[in-house]
Amino acid sequence: MSLHLLEVKSRQDLKRWVRFPYEHYRGHHHYVPQLFREELAYFDRSKNPAFEVAEVKLFLAIDGNRPVGRICGIVHSLETEKLGYRRGRFGWFESIDDQAVADLLLNGAREWLIAQGCVEMTGPHGFTDLDLEGLLVDGFDCTPTISGSYNYPYYAALLENFGFAKDVDYLDYRFAVPDEIPFFERMKKRYANQEEYKVVTCRNSKELRGHLDGLWRVLDAAFAPLYGVMPLTRRQTEYYAKKYFGFLDPDFVKLLFHRDGELVAFLVGMPNLSHAFRKANGRLLPFGIYHILRDYRRPETVDFLLAGSLPDHPTSMLTAIGLADMFDTLRARGVKFVEGNHELEDNTTVHGIWSRFPIVNMRRSRIYRLSLT
After folding, report:
1. How far apart are CA 162 and CA 108, in angstroms?
2. Which residues of 98-119 are buried (b: 16+ CB within 10 A; e: fewer)?
3. How far apart are CA 37 and CA 122, in angstroms?
4. Which residue positions in the chain have pLDDT lower than 50?
5. Hey, what domains does the chain have and what are their CATH numbers?
6. How far apart are the two ends of the chain, measured CA to CA in Å?
7. Residue 71: HSE in the Cβ half-sphere, 13 Å Cα cutoff
8. 145-154: pLDDT as tens digits
9. In three state form, how does the secondary structure of the chain look?
10. Which of 50, 225, 279, 370 sits at a 20 to 30 Å CA gap from 167?
């Protein structure tokens, strides 16, 4: 059979590109399939505003008539403005365990990125840091969150054999919610008399939606210095709000306000839906919606998605009082576990906080880099 690279151009090609991982990981115990309809819409240029600020190229590796891998190449204009040079991204990389297939995909993306004037190639990334990012290199016996990703252990060798080297690592923790948390009890006492900041938990989704503009403003300011983070356009914030808002339970969103009424920090958690998504197997109907609603209403685990504060406010204090309130809610709702989100390995503050909890497991994901000059 003939191995060749196919540039995705038609709707039918896009369906094959999106569908590949569903077959590639079929029956795998830890892979969490996304909802197929949502994934297809996400890569539709007419629907996702990321295509307004990024050049994107999708490739499929075909053996005969059978897809055996895929990759996405991205050149983001806002990242170019931030860095002062053109960085090429690759993402959504999947391949069978065959170096020739991986080389074909990676070389196709590399050649396209060179033609776009890029001086380096990093990934796996998405369009933004709210997308799937990082290649799993440790923790293959753990199930990721629905905002996380999974890959087979051989993927790292495919990238490294091509010439990629580590750029940065992220750590994710899963830990049990203890009956008592002495650290937070001490924080409560320390800050019991402060009147400058207060924690607000919205009563319903409508009330929460009214604070979205402030939340995005804090997120942009807090995340701007971090690796791989770019500002979001107004249309992107609206798109992500629509994409993720339905999965948020207001109980697990903590908003911190200054006494002058300004939103200055936040913590966002959501019910863990990984097992529900696995049972749904990419489809809401006929039974997927049942599994998702069940786990949403009575979550055993809550995913910590995002947290941030404005840089001119006391981050340590805001984090402590926000987390103390969050864990009171977790215990009241009977939540047993917390899944942490990606944290850069050099974020010693966050790792120090999580080390105080009974950690059940840990996942390590890696962003790779390849020079193109």
Report:
1. 12
2. beebbbbbbebbbebbeebebe
3. 28
4. none
5. 3-169 (3.40.630.30), 175-364 (3.40.630.30)
6. 34
7. 30
8. 888 889 999 9
9. CCEEEEECCCHHHHHHHHHHHHHHCCCCCCCCCCCHHHHHHHCCCCCCHHHHCEEEEEEEEEECCEEEEEEEEEEEHHHHHHHCCCEEEEEEEEECCCHHHHHHHHHHHHHHHHHCCCCEEEECCCCCCCCCCCEEEECCCCCCCCCCCCCCCCHHHHHHHHCCEEEEEEEEEEEECCCCCHHHHHHHHHCCCCCCEEEECCCCHHHHHCCHHHHHHHHHHHHCCCCCCCCCCHHHHHHHHHHHHHHCCHHHEEEEEECCCCEEEEEEEEECCHHHHHHHCCCCCCCHHHHHHHHHHCCCEEEEEEEEECCCCCHHHHHHHHHHHHHHHHHHCCCCEEECCCEECCCHHHHHHHCCCCEEEEEEEEEEEEECC
10. 50
The share of the chain scoring above pLDDT 90, in percent, equals 56
State the residue for tokens 């200055």. Answer: 264
pTM for this entry: 0.91
**Burial 190-229, CB ≥16 within 10 A → b, else e:** ebeeeeebebbbbeeeeebeebeebbbebbebbbeeeebb
How, if at all, do strands 343-344 and 359-371 pair? unpaired
pLDDT at 319: 86
Token couple for 212: 């979205």
In the numeric block, the tokens 């002495």 are attached to 182
